[in-house]
Amino acid sequence: MLVLAGGVGAARFLRGLVQVVEPADLVVVVNTGDDLRWHGLYVAPDLDTIMYWLAGLADEERGWGIRGDTFATQGAFARLGLETWFQLGDQDLATHVYRTERLAAGVSLDRVTDDLAARLHVRARLLPMSNEPVTTRLRTDRGDSHFQEYFVRDRCQPAVHEIYWTGLEAARPAPGIAEAIASARAIVIAPSNPIISIGPILRVPGMRELLAPARGRCVAVSPLIAGRAVKGPTVELMRAQGLEASALGVAELYRDLASAFILDAADVGLGPATSGLGYRVATMPTLLDDRQAAQAVAATALNLVQTEMAA
Ligand code: FO1
User: Fold this and answer.
1) How many whole angstroms from 46 Cα to the centroid of ligand 1?
2) Mean pLDDT throughout 96-100?
């Protein structure tokens, strides 16, 4: 099974998924548009969040970082007058040092990701969407910002006028993605932010061309419940892109890549319009706040695709 995934929402979903799918049969293509250089270190928030959740190391309250991690080094950074609005835990730092050192030695991001996941005994295969750097940036009332400046430093407060990406022209799907899509029994678009988590993955040149032929095997899970995101700036960013901030707006985005769509029970009214877009539709509780809920959504996703395959 192959999952397109972004940050915390996808991590919660994946934790449920590995209860119903053998982790070794799981490939996760992860957004790298949030990645940033911080204190000279290469930080890959979505890759690390998913890796920590699948390793059982995640701080599941906060969503990101390592459970029980300390922030003593942050205090030392502050003492030296370094910026501290983006917090790196002491154990989390080891991940960034490891990755930065290996990348500097010329090892590709997909290889470094494989090695990190192996070190943390993650059996699912994590793949960056591309080895080449792609960065999500936003033109806001506070100026031209990296995604983390908007999301963490400015707490999503400034009005967003435009969202754009750098590096796309030189990017291509990471090695292994084409084969993983071709051989996946099912493909799931995780309930991540369609603009800043799934959006960058689909913008990598060649990615849509790889996914379109697999449409019959692909199901999307809505990241919105009754027009609201469980967490994060999905609504604001969809509006900034001129999209209807509803599950239907998300279904519009994925209609040429997925043939099934899971709506939250609160959005059952959108069922007919969603199936009118060419989807098989299922509705169920999609708030993944516990393992059972994530597991149920994952099982439904699998069934939706299996019936599609059987049809
Ligand atoms: N999110 C915050 O709100 N504040 C932070 O200081 C912060 C630090 C951080 C460090 C490493 C990491 O992997 C994630 C971190 N995040 C932080 C979360 C991150 O901004 C988001 O999870 C993704 O970029 C969006 O999904």
Assistant:
1) 8
2) 98
With a 6 Å cutoff on the Cβ, whether 46 touches ligand 1 is yes
Q: Is 198 in the pocket of ligand 1 (CB under 6 A)?
A: no
Of 124, 127, 122, 93, residue with least CA distance to 112 = 127
One-letter amino acid for residue 53 of the chain: W
- Do 46 and 9 touch, CB atoms closer than 8 A? no
How far is the centre of ligand 1, averaged over its atoms, from the C-alpha of 127 (Å)?
19
Domain span at residue 203 reads 1-38+130-311
Query: Per-residue pLDDT averaged across 100-116, rounded?
Result: 98
Given ligand 1 and candidates 12, 152, 192, 196, which is best to mutate, with the most ligand atoms within 8 Å of its CB? 152
Residue 269 lies in a domain: yes
Domain at 294, CATH number: 3.40.50.10680
Does position 311 have pLDDT exceeding 60, yes or no? no
Which atom from ligand 1 is nearest to the alpha carbon of 31?
Answer: 26
| Protein residue with its CA nearest to atom 26 in ligand 1 | 7
Residue-wise pLDDT tens digits, 109-155: 999 999 999 999 999 999 999 999 999 999 999 999 999 999 999 99
